[in-house]
Specification:
homodimer; alpha/beta; Carbamate kinase; 8-stranded mixed sheet; 4-stranded antiparallel sheet; 35% helix
Chain lengths: 407, 407
């Protein structure tokens, strides 16, 4: 008998028919002799409906009130599923974030979990009850309702699994696992059976939208085995877990692409000490995340400085950089939006050498110019022209032996 | 400066535009120098939408889960109104039933209030905050969400007004007060300026749907002055308050009509001791509310026994009574659905004699046969043929000088 936390996302509980299917799966898991804790998101579309109401009321809704509003979505689904399970004669009971003791800080709309007591869940499990818990929400020390930000239900599930020392936390979603690349771009992409927390973190933060980043960090910290699986099909999913020998045997676990970047180049920057601080200080103050930075030594003590920012922040960044460039007496500023970042990820890079060299060679063979490079222990990223992104991903996927073998 | 609890019903917060208007009124009341506590219902239609979802899930939804589900409706409106007020620069904050300490028993879907702490409201008021409170809901001692039954938001408002020792509790609804009769039936009906709790209770339980009965009982018990007013118009409403000299000066305060009754007659009941118990015992066990009972002495120690039950319970009552009639060897059972009850209500009846006599005379003059009569200190009711109900109400309304004087 195992203790399993099952989390179902918004599309998995989007209709009454789908809630029936969730109930089927919960009943089956219990029938197999396991203890089940269910964590639910709001019905898909509900959060957007509520947000729309809020924005019809006022332009900038108060965040504490937004949390009061948005936290209703999960309460609806947990009540409906608990009813459904009880209607089948199963002893289920719904619990809010407060009732299971998900205590957060007071950063409304993006609260961080401080601790999880889970007392009522433990009690319920001892009584043979299936707890059905509202994801995405908690309360702060004042007992005000907070929410954990988009994707926060994943975090609720992982945090509960950690608090309960569950054997596994299964995230049911609309895809059946984590793939070696986005199958929409790389048709030969294949599902990964097992992936390390660190790899998953890189995948998540680089644009693979399967698991929310903070929930992966949390799972890694408390060593919670997380399985990503589809609520619509039967079959194996992807297990996110501690790094092991199998994973290290492979140099590259996956290829990701990210179009949400823009490149800013300041041309003709006087090469003086302290100049970087004068440029990036104001950028940081404006809460703009700089990803890569490259400095080219030019002629006569002038350098060109290029860096990437999220494309969404470009409007905010551009006037700021124009002002800074003037202040430091640089020559000009140029902006390139049509860039993309292609990355290789794998814990195996620690032991496999030559991955970077091979990557550059593959891109070069395809006639793709590399504009910027950054590396970490388990990742290599290249900024390229956006139009080459699909080609780059497919070529790298093949070159690193990730293509699906035909059955 | 007064402390005023304002309760807005579902139609008053049914759209974003109407929520704006509620905010106007709250702002104006505060602007006049008063402290305001706002209590809200769910947007009209929302409770029915949620109930429909529940019934799509399962035939007989669990009541604890129903409360979890239904309590979301008020959370949406309080969040929206608090946002709106804050958007205008007013310091408002939403609170759930739990957060303001509305503690109930565990009778889910129809919980009774055990006590109200109101600590966070008092604190908020001291800080100059406008508390916006979810009506209809509380928590039990286990900290599970409960709801107070249909119309429960009125009760929330009155209970909070009592706990806060508020100067007044204003119930904003879609009518501008309590009328001497239903204006749809009696066009000459006029708004009552002031009505005693007891009168209001009789009006409410006899079918005037303005205020929920339990909230009037609660107001009477704690002597909370309750004003019923329209949220759509400006002007005076009806004040529900302690009995006073003005009220006693008038014999009849209002006329009500009730069609939700059916008459059952058991013909030829042997006139033996204990027979009433054998009839009404099973009826009570089936939770059927018997209103009036009349016994006619017939010939040869046989009596006819007539009584009224809610028309909705007739299906349940009829087979039961047929069985009982057989057991006690009565002759037959006859059912009359087309009856109605017309009533006169007024605390003035205590000091005015002759009200009953005049009522009988008026009905007789119109050719209306009286089938049953019941009286209390402040009420006289007659059961008549349903088709005469409107005529009876209008005639009595005129005869007891209740018709609106033309301006």
């Amino acid at each position: 008998m195992a203790l399993i936390v099952q989390k179902y996302g918004g599309t998995s509980v989007g209709t009454i028919e789908r809630i029936h299917r969730v109930a089927d799966r919960v009943a089956r898991t219990q029938g197999e002799g396991h203890q089940v804790v269910v964590v639910l998101s709001a019905m898909s579309g509900e959060t957007d409906r509520l947000l729309k109401l809020a924005h019809e009321v006022t332009g900038t809704p108060d965040e504490r009130e937004l949390d009061m509003l948005l936290s209703t979505g999960e309460r609806v689904t947990i009540a409906l599923l608990a009813m459904e399970l009880r209607g089948r004669g199963l002893n289920a009971r719904s619990f809010t974030g407060r009732q299971v003791g998900i205590i957060t800080d007071s950063a409304h709309t993006k609260a961080r979990i401080a601790r999880v007591t889970a007392d009522r869940i433990k009690e319920a499990l001892n009584e043979g009850v299936i707890p059905v818990v509202a994801g995405f929400q908690g309360i702060n020390e004042r007992s005000d309702v907070t929410t954990l930000g988009r994707g926060g239900s994943d975090l609720s599930a992982v945090a509960l699994a950690a608090a309960l020392k569950a054997d596994r936390c299964v995230i049911f979603t609309d895809v059946d696992g984590v793939y070696t690349a986005d199958p929409n771009i790389v048709p030969a992409a294949k599902r990964i059976d097992k992936i390390a927390y660190e790899e998953m973190l890189e995948m998540a933060s680089l644009g693979a939208k399967v698991l929310q980043t903070r929930s992966v960090e949390f799972a890694a910290k408390f060593n919670v085995p997380v399985e990503v699986n589809s609520s619509f099909t039967e079959g194996k999913g992807t297990l996110v877990t501690k790094e092991d020998k199998d994973m290290e045997a492979v140099a590259v676990a996956g290829v990701t692409g990210d179009r949400n970047q823009a490149k800013i180049t300041i041309v003709g920057v006087p090469d003086k000490p302290g100049i970087a601080g004068r440029i990036f200080g104001p950028v940081a103050e404006a809460h703009i995340n700089v990803d890569m930075i490259i400095q080219n030594i030019g002629q006569a003590a002038l350098t060109d400085l290029s860096f990437t920012v999220p494309r969404a922040d470009l409007k905010k960044a551009e006037p700021l950089i124009q002002r800074v460039a003037k202040d430091i007496e640089a020559k000009s500023v140029s902006i390139t939006e049509a860039i993309a970042k292609v990355s290789l990820i794998g814990v195996g890079m620690r032991s496999h050498s030559g991955v970077a060299a091979k990557m550059f060679e593959v891109l070069s063979r395809e006639g793709i110019n590399i504009m910027m490079i950054s590396t970490s222990e388990i990742k290599i990223s290249c900024v390229i022209e956006e139009k080459y992104l699909e080609l780059a991903m497919r070529s790298l996927h093949t070159a690193f032996d990730l293509d699906q073998t035909q059955a």
